Amino acid sequence: TIDAAHERFTINFTITNLPYNSDLSTPDSAKYRTTRRVMNTLLDRLLKDSSIGPAFLGCETTAFRYGPLREGDNTAVDAVCTYKKEPSAAPLDRVGLYHEVSNKTSGITQLGPYSLDKDSLYVNG
């Protein structure tokens, strides 16, 4: 048997109740490490419970950056998620996954303790 290939997709969104500061751009800061760990856990839970769940391997938060909103304390999050793609499987349904994530985050407003900018979710396969 041939092993399934590992495929990746990115997911980006903006948190509106997490003030961005330089600690979040410093990978060895305690705030970066803690926030990244929490984010990875929340994303893993969210996607394990989705249609790609059985093939889902995990997400890694790759960056925190200034959010695009003009005012308020917001932080943009970039993450790369990995799943096993069977050779016979259809390509990732980005639109379907987007809608699932939207539904599981109350219309892209809530992820765990974080409030989300409802217009900020982007899934790119």
Report on the structure:
This protein is an alpha+beta fold and 125 residues long. The protein has a single domain, classed as 2-Layer Sandwich (Alpha-Beta Plaits). Helices cover 24% and strands 32% of the residues. The protein has a four-stranded antiparallel β-sheet with strand order 2-3-1-6. Strand 4 and strand 5 form a beta hairpin. It is globular, with a radius of gyration of 15 Å. The mean pLDDT is 92. This is Mucin-16. It comes from Cuculus canorus (Common cuckoo).
Count the beta strands: 6
Strand order of the largest sheet: 2-3-1-6
Question: SSE order in H/E notation?
Answer: EHEEHEEE
The oligomeric state is single chain
CATH architecture: 2-Layer Sandwich
End-to-end CA span: 26 Å
Q: How can the largest sheet be summarized? A: 4 strands, antiparallel
- How many domains in all? 1
What is the radius of gyration computed over CA atoms, rounded to a whole number of angstroms?
A: 15 Å
Low-confidence blocks of residues: none
Approximate strand percentage:
25-35%
Task: Give a short overview.
It is built from 2 helices and 6 strands. It has 125 residues and is of the alpha+beta class.
Show the helix and strand layout.
Elements lengths: L4 E11 L14 H19 L7 E11 L8 E11 L8 H11 L5 E2 L2 E2 L6 E3 L1
Antiparallel strand pairs: 1-3, 1-6, 2-3, 4-5
Key phrases:
alpha+beta, single chain, 4-stranded antiparallel beta sheet, 24% helix, two-stranded antiparallel ribbon, 125 residues, Alpha-Beta Plaits
